Structure formats: structure tokens, C-alpha cells
Amino acid sequence: MQDFLKVTGMVIGVFAQGEYDRRITLLTRERGKITAFVKSARRQGSRFLGTTDMFAFGTFDLYVGRTSYNVQNVEIMNYFDNFRLDMEGAYYGMYFAELAEFYALENNDESELLLLLYRALQGLKSERLSNDFVRRVFEIKLFMIEGEFIPAINAGSFSDGLYTTLDYIQGSTIEKLFNFKLSDKLFSELTEVADYERKHLVDRNLASLDILNTMTMQ
User: Fold this and answer.
1) Could you tell me which of 64, 76, 79, 71 has the C-alpha nearest to residue 24?
2) Which DSSP letter does residue 106 get?
3) pTM value?
4) 17: part of which helix (H) or strand (E)?
5) CA 56 → CA 25, 146, 166, distances in Å?
6) CB 143 within 8 A of CB 199
7) What is the per-residue DSSP string for 33-85?
8) In this structure, are residues 101 and 33 in contact, taking their beta carbons and an 8 Å threshold?
9) Domains of the chain
10) Three-state secondary-structure class, residue 98
11) pLDDT at residue 2 tops 90
């Protein structure tokens, strides 16, 4: 008897497999981070040609093999196709996805992480939010969700407003996470804290961040 599984998730990694196939990394609510294979996904006319692109969000019907998952059907709710015309936004999104992939675990409840990634990608589409604001709030909330946020006492001398901001990020629901504004001074402090946290917590070179920093000259 074949085993099938339906998951809700987002494509956070896409890799060529053979001549026409794809291997994708999915961040899912039900099974955390999983790797799945997609037959003929790169063949012209394939029904999987766009549905297994980076950032595609929806439901994925998977055949559960002995050693792998195989995609049987996909129903996409959001393609985030705005990134096709926004190269800088796309690299912010790829950085978010790579950071999420770093923390996500297999067979784990990653619903909060998936929601955070989804809302951050929506934030990159918003005209009222700067990409770098979305980035810094995403980074800090992610470290808090993972229980690894380090009180940055030794990172610098900060204003009371910075600690109020961190308290807001800590206590906010993800739906309301980006609903605030910062002065330039406070944003500079938040950036310093986010960089401090990442450098101390992420022990991997993130290729997307290298490219993003080159693009934005950071």
C-alpha cells in the first residue's frame, strides 16, 4: 500500500536533479523541513514548472517512499511572483529562506517559523516598509522564536527605546510584528543588535547574505 501525505508549506530551496527533475526543500507546518523530488519539473510544459519555484506557497501532495518524498500534486496559494521583477527583494527573500532553513528541523512543528517567513515575504512587498527594516525584525524575531536570543548587553550602549522595541518584538504576534516605526537612531541600534545576534548564533556562511550585502553595499 502506498503512503500519501498532504502538507502546507513553502519552497525554500530548489536544486536541479538529473536532466529534467528537481529536488526541493520544503518548510512545512506538519513535518518541518523536508526534501522532496519532483519528476520532470524542468521539462517544458510540465505542470510543476512554476509550482515548485522558490517561495511557492501552498499544499503539496507527497508520496512517501522508503527514503524520500516525491511530489504528486501541488495547489499554490501564493507564488510571490513580485520577486521576478524585484531582484533586490528576491535576495532579501532568499536570505530569509536560507536562515529559516538553517533553523528548521525535520519532523518538527515549524508552523510559527513558516508563518514568520510568509509574513516577512509579504513585508518585502509593502511600500510602507523598507526591506532592511523587515530584515532586522525578521532576524530578531526568529532568534527569539528559536529560544536563542542573546541579551546584547556587551554589544553596545543602547537607549531605553531599543529595549522597548525588543520587548515589542518579543511579545508581538507575527501578524502584527511589522506594525511599528522607528527613528533612524533606534533603527541603527536595532541593526547593531541583529548583526550581533547573527554573528554569534549562525555558524554557517550564508551565500544569499553575501550577495545581498554586495548588492546593498553593507
Assistant:
1) 71
2) B
3) 0.94
4) strand 3-17
5) 11, 24, 31
6) no
7) EEEEEETTTTSTT-TTTTTTSTT-EEEEEEEE-SS-EEEEEEEEEE--GGGGS
8) yes
9) 3-79 (2.40.50.140), 82-216 (1.20.1440)
10) helix
11) no
Answer yes or no: is pLDDT of 153 > 80.
no
pLDDT-derived band at 1 (thresholds 50, 70, 90) equals very low
* Residue 84 grid coordinates: 521576478
Quickly state the pLDDT bin for 189 (edges 50, 70, 90): very high
For the record, the C-alpha cell of 117 comes out as 517567513
The three grid cell numbers given for residue 92, joined into one nine-digit string:
532579501
Closest CA to 207 of 117, 102, 137: 102
For residue 142, give every residue at least 6 positions away whose Cβ sits within 8 Å of its Cβ, in sequence order, or none: 99, 100, 103, 113, 116
Which of 1-5, 57-61, 76-80, 209-213 shows the lowest mean pLDDT across its residues?
1-5
